[in-house]
Specification:
With about 180 residues, the protein is an alpha/beta fold. The chain is about 40% helix and about 15% strand. It contains 5 helices and 5 strands. It has helices at about 15-30, 60-70, 85-95, 120-135, 160-184, and strands at about 5-10, 35, 70-75, 110-115, 145. The longest helix is centred in the C-terminal third of the chain and has 22 residues, at about 160-184. The two termini are about 15 Å apart.
């Protein structure tokens, strides 16, 4: 049985470093794990007035249906003003509603923050973890995945430095162990 892991990338930029890192993580997953990328850039901002029969935006429903069918999640986030991008927070809100129908509960998560800066998205990483606690998503604690100086770790061909890729392998291996323990 294939474990389907939702990949949510907080950066909407076409040439996003987070997207490049997420794509590399997807390549490195073991054969029995599959990455499923979820689109978040098309989600209208959450507004409870729209979350009633006949008004729910089709994008929200499609996102909820897709996320509900997944077994776990990898979140890739840049840091905007010491927090997560609005699109990522909106996706969490859309998936957690309506009250009592959250698509997130009990699904193992991984948080990876990617930044050209030396702080490596530390603030965003921890803000996201705070939300995941409330959403009842057990989150891999170690190794912490802060990828700083990413612009120096990717060459002109878009290839990520081998030492960094080896770190990604370690993170994935720990997540797989974490996932299997939780789902045993």
């Amino acid at each position: 049985m294939t474990v389907k892991i939702g990949f949510i990338v907080g950066s909407l930029r076409t040439a996003s470093y987070n997207k490049k890192v997420a794509e590399k993580f997807a390549e490195l997953l073991p054969a029995d794990f599959e990455a499923v990328f979820l689109e978040i850039g098309n989600l209208p901002l959450y507004n409870e007035d729209l979350d009633v029969d006949g008004k729910v935006p089709v994008e929200w429903q499609a996102f909820r249906d897709q996320a509900a069918a997944l077994d776990g999640f990898f979140f890739f986030t840049p840091e905007y003003n010491r927090s997560v991008p609005a699109a990522l927070k909106n996706a969490l809100d859309v998936g957690s509603r309506p009250y009592g129908a959250s698509v997130w509960g009990g699904k193992p998560a991984l948080v990876v923050s990617v930044s050209p800066g030396a702080i490596s998205g530390f603030g965003a990483n921890h803000h996201l973890r705070q939300s995941l606690v409330f959403l009842d998503m057990p989150t891999l604690q170690q190794p912490e995945a802060y990828i700083g100086g990413i612009n120096n770790l990717i060459d002109d061909n878009g290839d990520i430095a081998e030492g960094t890729v080896n770190f990604f392998r370690t993170i994935i291996s720990k997540y797989v162990d974490f996932y299997n323990k939780l789902k045993a």
